């Protein structure tokens, strides 16, 4: 028996794969991973719908003017109907329109909070872990002081010290939220900085800054992506809680939490005033959660 | 800094290198106890010894990768190309590292950054090698420059070709996880050779690979080093490889060089019982069961004065515990740290 008989060549040589760009091959892989997990697709669809609603709110909302201080007394407190799918509120404004316009507020809040939190937290965490020593220790001790206070209490205190408005809400939540990013970055960098490629970069003469932010930081992309996606939902929830407690953007701004608070006095008769904004919060949080979990599975599978 | 006299000086000159740390119970632990190693220009030197004898620690000190604290150089000098490395500022070390002195690491798969393609890693090296402070703008500028990108790509493909990587145009856009260990090691060798350094430090470059690939990698490394007339310090615990590759060999035991000399001479006539034990421990297909060396490496905390090998040595005499034997010439171009070296060379 010759070697050729024992190891027969494959019948046909596999066709040479078409050269594709790296980005295209990753897009294909992402698509394939999405197809395997229907829940991720649901989450992705909700997130996408939410973003589209927020972006095109004035064109999608049937009565966009109802977002402001409009009064239409002749149609106040109407139950859901063909003209007003989610009913109307105390002064006759369309609840559906206000929810759609409110998506903008929620999205702006949560994106702004996350951007601030990432910009503050991640560099601090990277420096604390990479530099170590007393600068690292002091950053992390300050971080722990912030973490020790429950975030809702912290945000309540900060926002009650100022006049409630959208920027104040964003500022207050970001001040509580950066700690999580600092901690996440800290933990990741602590382990990544032990990797061999960090030594390899150092022997090639890279400066400490370049190693920390050029070599190590890009390794955090996947964990940060997952964390950001999950957090977009949680920040919407926290923003709505703040609005519900009267410390968020003030009426007539169509903030979902504020709307629930306004409608609370009309329960149980005008149930639609609280139910639909509440469902909007619920859908947004669940959507970002499902999408974030799915992303975690997809990206986590890489290492 | 190269004076006319420097041409005859060793390229890398490690003298009396002593490294230790203070343990939690405040005892001083000495890990390297006066290491002397010289590498001449264009010479291939092997550093052999058991795991834990201080080979890697020595190279980390040379490369400036010591974890300090806790580790500290308490005595000795490291001169590279006439420059005292230990007294050098951070910027000067950066300029030296990665240009004049490069590393071929031990674990090829984990020594490449997993989130960048091979091409991107070469790009950084080609753009910034040996330059410490470039600032955020300096980091971005070559990326935005089309001619720089094209030039770097061409240089990368040439470098990948020079280490016989199949399909360099394909490899350049791959991530390290898409390459095999042998391919990664070829990429790393290409990186180490990129700046035509004066010294390459190879830290057991084949240990993480299987034997056939290891042989290929060593052959490649040897060919490239000879071609570029680069000096190489090759760290290994494999005597066979040391014998095959090197011009000279240093044998380390428990933080000291116990024997050194021209490779052929040391292997033919070892003059230190440890070297002899190591040679006898090499498995041979035909021979009887290997002898090995009894016992294990001593704990550096309880070592005390005297020869560190005396606990495992068949030749030990009371004098061995009295004082640490110095490295003394036993033949032309051969030195051993053993008072009974004359009896060992049978």
Structural class by helix and strand composition of chain A: mainly alpha
Mean of residue pLDDT of chain B?
83
Strand fraction band of chain A?
under 5%
**Name of the CATH homologous superfamily of chain A:** MetI-like
Terminal Cα separation of chain B, in Å?
Answer: 46 Å
Compose a concise summary of this entry.
Chain A is mainly alpha-helical and 303 residues long. Chain A has one domain (38-65, 95-300): MetI-like fold, CATH 1.10.3720.10.
Structure, described:
- With 303 residues, chain A is mostly helical.
- Chain A has a single domain (38-65, 95-300), classed as MetI-like (MetI-like fold).
- Chain A is built from 13 helices and no strands.
- Residues 1-19 of chain A have low confidence and may be disordered.
- Chain B is of the alpha/beta class and 346 residues long.
- Chain B has a domain at 5-112 and 197-246: P-loop containing nucleotide triphosphate hydrolases (Rossmann fold, 3-Layer(aba) Sandwich).
- Helix content of chain B is 34%, strand content 21%.
- Chain B is built from 13 helices and twelve strands.
- Chain B has helices at 55-63, 90-96, 118-128, 135-144, 146-162, 168-171, 181-193, 211-228, 239-245, 263-268, 273-280, 319-322, 341-344; strands at residues 12-22, 28-39, 44-48, 72-80, 83-84, 101-104, 199-203, 231-236, 248-253, 256-262, 328-331, 334-336.
- Chain B has an eight-stranded mixed beta sheet, sandwiched between helices. A four-stranded antiparallel beta sheet of chain B has the order 2-1-4-5, with helices on one face.
- In chain B, helix 3 crosses helix 5.
- The longest helix of chain B has 18 residues, at 211-228.
- In chain B, 41% of the residues are buried.
- Chains A and B meet through helix 9 and helix 10 of A and helix 2, strand 6 and helix 3 of B.
């Amino acid at each position: 028996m010759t070697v050729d008989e024992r190891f027969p060549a494959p019948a046909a040589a596999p066709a040479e794969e078409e050269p594709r760009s790296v980005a295209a091959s990753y897009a294909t892989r992402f698509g394939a991973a999405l197809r395997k997990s229907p829940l991720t697709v649901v989450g992705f669809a909700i997130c996408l719908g939410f973003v589209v609603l927020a972006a095109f709110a004035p064109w999608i909302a049937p009565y966009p003017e109802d977002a402001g201080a409009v009064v239409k007394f002749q149609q106040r407190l109407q139950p859901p109907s063909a003209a007003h799918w989610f009913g109307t509120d105390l002064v006759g404004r369309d609840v559906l329109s206000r929810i759609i316009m409110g998506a903008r507020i929620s999205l702006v809040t949560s994106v702004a909070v996350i951007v601030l939190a990432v910009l503050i937290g991640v560099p601090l965490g990277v420096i604390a872990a990479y530099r170590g020593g007393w600068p690292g220790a002091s950053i992390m001790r300050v971080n722990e002081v912030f973490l020790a206070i429950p975030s809702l209490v912290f945000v309540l205190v900060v926002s009650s010290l100022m006049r409630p408005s959208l920027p104040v809400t964003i500022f207050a939540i970001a001040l509580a939220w950066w700690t999580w990013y600092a901690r996440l970055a800290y933990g990741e960098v602590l382990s990544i900085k032990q990797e061999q490629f960090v030594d390899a970069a150092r022997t090639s003469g890279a400066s400490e800054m370049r190693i920390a932010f050029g070599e190590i930081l890009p390794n955090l992309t996947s964990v940060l992506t997952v964390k950001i996606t999950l957090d977009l939902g949680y920040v919407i929830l926290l923003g709505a809680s703040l609005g519900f407690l009267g410390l968020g953007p003030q009426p007539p701004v169509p903030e979902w939490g504020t709307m629930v608070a306004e409608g609370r006095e009309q329960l149980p008769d005008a149930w639609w005033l609280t139910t639909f904004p509440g469902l909007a919060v619920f859908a947004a949080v669940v959507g970002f959660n499902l999408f974030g979990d799915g992303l975690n599975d997809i990206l986590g599978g890489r290492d | 800094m190269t004076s006319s006299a420097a041409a005859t000086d060793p390229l890398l000159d490690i003298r009396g290198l002593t490294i230790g740390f203070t343990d939690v119970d405040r005892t001083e632990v000495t890990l390297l106890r006066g290491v002397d190693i010289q590498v001449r220009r264009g010479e291939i030197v092997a550093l052999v010894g058991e795991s834990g004898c201080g080979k890697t620690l020595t190279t980390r000190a040379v490369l400036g990768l010591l974890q300090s604290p806790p580790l500290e150089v308490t005595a000795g000098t490291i001169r590279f190309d006439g420059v005292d490395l230990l007294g050098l500022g951070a910027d000067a070390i950066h300029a030296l590292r990665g240009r004049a002195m490069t590393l071929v690491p031990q674990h090829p798969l984990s020594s490449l950054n997993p989130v960048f393609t091979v091409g991107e890693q070469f790009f950084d090296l080609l753009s910034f090698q040996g330059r410490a402070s470039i600032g955020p703008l300096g980091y971005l500028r070559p990326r935005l420059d089309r001619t720089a990108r094209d030039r770097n790509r061409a240089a990368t493909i040439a470098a990948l070709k020079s280490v016989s990587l199949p399909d360099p145009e394909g490899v350049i856009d791959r991530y390290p996880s898409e390459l095999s260990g042998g391919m990664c090691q070829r990429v790393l060798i290409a990186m180490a050779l990129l700046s035509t350094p004066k010294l390459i430090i190879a830290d057991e470059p084949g240990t993480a690979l299987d034997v056939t690939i290891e042989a290929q990698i060593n052959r490649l490394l040897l060919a490239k080093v000879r071609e570029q007339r680069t000096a190489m310090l090759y760290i290994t615990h494999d005597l066979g490889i040391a014998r095959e590759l090197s011009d000279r060999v240093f044998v380390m035991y428990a933080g000291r060089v116990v024997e050194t000399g021209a490779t052929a001479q040391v292997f033919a006539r070892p003059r230190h019982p440890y070297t002899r034990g190591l040679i006898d421990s090499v498995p041979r297909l035909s021979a009887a069961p290997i002898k090995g060396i009894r016992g294990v490496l001593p704990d550096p905390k309880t070592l005390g004065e005297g020869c560190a090998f005396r606990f495992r040595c068949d030749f030990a005499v009371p004098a061995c515990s009295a004082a640490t034997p110095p490295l003394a010439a036993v033949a032309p171009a051969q030195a051993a740290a053993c008072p009974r070296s004359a009896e060992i060379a049978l």
